[in-house]
Amino acid sequence: MSGNVFLGNQKPQTGGIRVIGEDHEVFDNYLEGLTGTGFYGTLCFMNGIPSSPLNGYWQVKRARLTGNTVVDCARGVVIGQIGANGTATLPPLDCLVESNTFWKLRGPQRDDLTPPLNLRWIKNEEREPRRKKGLSRTQVGPDWRDLLQ
User: Fold this and answer.
1) Would you say 80 and 97 are in contact if contact means Cβ atoms under 8 Å apart?
2) How far apart are CA 115 and CA 57, in angstroms?
């Protein structure tokens, strides 16, 4: 899954990408203004259900979450969300979270609800937007403007 844009506009419980199952690659997505947490997280690795039915939550294995940009969201990555009925007890296994950028988060960059097994967290960075210095009047507009006054 790549190249998607999620704009939550700070609406309540807006979520992003939920990872379920094996060998998923989630990369180069842009997520902004999402307010959901837990089950409705911005980037969420779900727990799996043991002996899951076909329409259930399969354990997350070998998922790769790379190069995504998260801006002004309630959370960064939610790991090990159990789900509504509590039967999902298998934590994410052998996953990689690498080179993601988090700007101006309202909560933690990483929210471990269940400890993952062998998760690699590499080169993810949290950044704050730089405040730009305003321009002076002489730096903008034409020079002749001063002659009119």
Assistant:
1) no
2) 17
The stretch 52-58 carries a mean pLDDT of: 88
Strands of 1-149 (E only): list them: 5-7, 17-19, 25-27, 30-32, 43-46, 64-66, 69-71, 77-81, 96-98, 101-103, 110-112, 120-122, 125-127
Residue 81's Cβ-count burial label (10 Å; 0-12, 13-18, 19+) is buried
pTM surpassing 0.85? no
Structure confidence at residue 88 (pLDDT)? 87
Per-residue pLDDT of 22-41, as tens digits, reads 999 999 999 999 998 888 88
Half-sphere exposure of 87 (CA within 13 A, CB side): 9
